[in-house]
Design a protein that fits this description.
Elements: E1 3-6, H1 20-30, H2 40-77, E2 79-82, E3 90-96, E4 105-106, E5 109-110, H3 111-129, E6 134-139, E7 148-152, H4 157-167, H5 177-188, E8 196-203, H6 207-210, H7 219-226, E9 233-239, E10 247-254, E11 259-260, E12 264-273, E13 282-288, E14 292-298, E15 306-314, E16 319-328, E17 338-346, E18 349-355, H8 366-372, E19 379-385, E20 399-403, H9 410-421, E21 425-429, H10 436-444, E22 455-459, E23 466-470, H11 482-491, E24 494-495, E25 498-501, E26 510-515, E27 522-531, E28 534-542, H12 557-570, E29 580-582, E30 586-591, E31 596-604, E32 610-614, E33 616-617, E34 647-652, E35 661-668, E36 673-681, H13 696-700, H14 703-706, E37 709-712, H15 728-751
Length: about 750
């Protein structure tokens, strides 16, 4: 399909001016009078012989003058050739930004709706002047699934494109602009029916999409722009501007490792100022289960500053709970003014106490048990001997106190290490019974084991006790009680004897307290242990005993605080990432088919989004699970009976619509529904609304890339490809040639 359009069609009314040379020619012929004279006869005879040639010359000059007028009118009206005329057909590809930042309000609308309007105007304009070209619409969150791809532009294209744009919705993710552009470029290269490709990036032009936090080009975007062919590809950035001021809730979390029913906890809400100016006072509110509400004032924040606002709360019932943190009043970008937290509150926390001297009246764990096992603590303890440890199911406990045990067996050491790797906590209290070389062999292993530091010889003089010194008050064990620790350790606690903890070069232990002074022997050391798929648990090593044989610490008030602080620090933490997800995450849930039915319902709390999913059989992992004894008849070797496999539920967060907490309802075979919770939140980086400045692009991106990109402000029109396909260069050349030809012919004919 060929296309011809005019950028200035109103000037076509000047086409009748082409008759002016003809009128002048006719008038010039009529103004001559016939005057007979003798010599005229000879001239008439000569003219009759040359009449045909003279008439041809006059008509040729007249034609050139008429064409000159037509070419001049055509030149100022700027005709455009489209649809393959002269071999030019352009593929116009729109990359529409549908990230969460496009939901910010702008007057009575939002930025995404403004971007839709801008694309609609572009489609209307191209429909009028670029008939036969190709047009595509691609949202940045789904570049592999374009909403419109390589459609021919026709007379009613603007209307059809507008109808499609109305159906598109803004997302709540943070798509990668560079990856979206690269995917689109690779797909556009497969369209053989286009000579050129013009990409239009329509969005809010956030600096976060174009530059890294350390002020460098985004590598995926730089690669995508560098891959463009400057001879046939170009990018036009159409900006829909919004405001840059934004105060956001970037995180809400439980400050403690776990929440226990009827035990006070602290909820931490992180607020950040993403804007370029200091903030005014704002109110932060926390709601628990949509009922309990606590309000606090958020302090004024400098640009880029982040502050943690603590909220104290007590959950009185175990089970699934939700917490909603909000900023009030809501801003122009309300999406990140709210954040939800899903958490599980336990009925109690279980602690295992392993007594190295179980026959003693005041055994090694007496004081530990007395301080932990309090009615208001929510902690339940169980005491076992070293031999009884092998019979205990460690998975049922959050923390193990290993008190003056002579030495673990290889099996016990392996169980302790696996327990810590799975997220459990371990506290080792030393004493006279400790076989240091055996501990180092099984649990230190040159730094490869969970022991924070290797254990050495007994040190100290009972007749000359030493003071204890706090050397790392910022350690999590000292959280909120550092001043108390510093005061009591230095003035009350006495260390009579202790086991020397060696400090090899390059060790990973954190030294919390020392004996004598800041350079003295370590008294309390900790270490974080990595798990097989991520973070594991914490290990604390106390060089003193947990009884009064080597120290007066258990007799002081500090010991009560210390044991509970260690519990807050080291007890098994519930993994919040499993149930608190971003809008582009995946919710995974494993179900026992003997207990649960496969149907699971997700219901948005405070919204209208409700969906039911069906869990399927989990993929089998490992080998030989059903080999030999235990395999049912008819089961293939190396396979597991289908009914024994767990059910696995996978829910992409892109399936859900609401940014809120969701109730997860499980159906049990006994008919009793079970309720869990998950939270779906927007990525915190979506709050970075500051625009990518005009000076930043030439500063960050190389010159060859700059030639391929044109930025157009919100009030500006599309100009990057405006000249592509225009006929004015050809018309100007023809006009120049015509004027030269007319001048030469008029001069030549006039000499005759």
């Amino acid at each position: 399909m060929l296309g011809l359009a005019f950028l200035n069609p109103l000037l076509l009314w000047a086409l009748p001016l082409a008759a002016v040379p003809i009128v002048i020619h006719i008038l010039n012929r009529r103004r001559f009078k016939k005057v007979p004279w003798a010599a005229m006869d000879f001239l008439l005879k000569a003219m009759k012989r040359n009449r045909k040639r003279l008439r041809m010359e006059q008509w040729l000059v007249l034609l050139l003058r008429v064409l000159a007028v037509l070419l001049l009118v055509g030149l100022v009206s700027r005709p455009q050739l489209g649809g393959g005329l002269l071999g030019v057909r352009t593929h116009h590809v729109v990359l529409l930004d549908d990230s969460a930042s496009m939901t910010q309000r702008s007057g009575s609308t939002n930025l995404f709706e403004k971007a839709q309007d801008r694309v609609r105007l572009l489609a209307d304009d191209l429909g009028q002047r670029r008939g036969g070209d190709l047009f595509s619409i691609v949202r940045t969150s789904r570049p592999a699934k374009p909403d419109l791809w390589a459609q021919r532009i026709g007379p009613d294209f603007g209307r059809r494109a507008g109808a499609l744009l109305k159906e598109l919705t803004v997302g709540d993710m943070t798509p990668d602009l560079g990856k979206a552009l690269q995917t689109t470029v690779e797909r556009a290269a497969e369209v053989e029916d286009a000579t050129r490709v013009e990409y239009y990036v329509v969005g809010d032009r956030r600096a976060w999409d174009w530059a890294t936090p350390d002020d460098k080009p985004r590598p995926p975007l730089l690669r995508a722009l560098s891959s463009l062919d400057p001879e046939r590809e170009h990018v036009t950035v159409l900006t829909v501007g919004g405001q840059h001021h934004n105060l956001a809730v970037v995180d809400v979390r439980l400050q403690d490792r776990l929440a226990i029913a009827s035990v006070p906890v602290t909820l931490a809400v992180d607020v950040k100022n993403f804007g370029p100016d200091p903030t005014s006072l704002t109110v932060g509110a926390v709601e628990v289960d949509g009922q309990s509400r606590v309000v606090q004032t958020v302090p004024q924040l400098a640009p880029g500053e982040r502050v943690t606002v603590p909220f104290a709360h007590t959950f009185h019932q175990a089970g699934a709970h939700r917490v909603d943190a909000r900023l009030e009043p809501s801003e122009a970008f309300p999406t990140d003014d709210h954040r939800a937290l899903a958490l599980h509150v336990r009925e109690r926390s279980r602690v295992l106490l392993v007594d190295g001297q179980p026959d003693e009246d005041d055994g090694e764990v007496f004081f530990v048990q007395a301080t932990l096992d309090l009615p208001e603590s929510g902690i339940e303890t169980q005491v076992v001997s070293e031999t009884g440890f092998d019979e205990v199911n460690l998975a049922a406990f959050d923390l193990v106190w290993w008190c003056n045990v002579q030495a673990p067996t290889k099996a016990a050491a392996l169980r302790l290490e696996q327990f810590v790797a799975s997220g459990g906590g371990l506290v080792i209290a030393c004493g006279a019974l400790v076989d240091a070389p055996r501990y180092n062999e099984l649990l230190w292993r040159d730094g490869e084991g969970p022991l924070p530091l290797p254990i050495g010889e007994v040190d100290g003089d009972p007749d000359r006790p030493e003071r204890a010194v706090l050397v790392q008050p910022e350690h999590p064990i000292c959280d909120r009680v550092a001043e108390v620790f510093d005061l009591l350790l230095g003035n009350v606690v006495q260390a009579k004897r202790w086991l020397t903890l060696e400090e090899p070069a390059g060790h990973e232990a954190a030294i919390v307290a020392r004996v004598r002074d800041a350079e003295g022997p370590p008294l309390l050391a900790t270490r974080s242990v990595a798990g097989p798929g991520g973070p594991g648990g914490e290990v604390a090593l106390l060089a003193l005993t947990a009884d009064r044989f080597w120290t007066n610490l258990p007799s002081t008030d500090l010991f009560l605080v210390l044991t509970h602080q260690i519990h807050r620090y080291a007890a098994r933490r519930d993994d919040p990432s499993r149930q608190n997800l971003l809008s582009d995450g995946v919710y995974r849930l494993e179900l026992d088919p003997g207990v649960y039915r496969p149907d699971v319902t997700l219901r948005a709390l405070g919204g209208d989004d409700e969906r039911t999913y069906t869990a399927t059989e989990a993929a089998r992992s490992g080998s030989g699970a059903a080999e030999g004894a235990g395999a049912e008849p008819g089961t293939e070797p190396g396979t597991e009976p289908a009914e024994m496999r767990p059910l696995e539920l996978r829910v992409p967060m892109t399936d859900l619509r609401a940014l809120s907490a969701y109730e997860v309802e499980l159906q049990r075979h006994d008919g009793v529904p079970e309720r869990r919770m998950l939270a779906r939140n927007v990525p915190a980086d979506e709050g970075r609304l500051v625009a990518f400045g005009d000076a930043a692009f030439p500063r960050l991106y190389p010159a060859d890339v700059q030639e391929r990109v044109t930025f157009v402000r919100e009030e500006g029109g599309v100009s990057a490809a405006a000249g592509e396909g225009e006929a004015w260069p050809l018309l100007a050349a023809l006009l120049l040639v015509g004027l030269l030809a007319e001048s030469l012919l008029a001069w030549r004919f006039g000499r005759r």
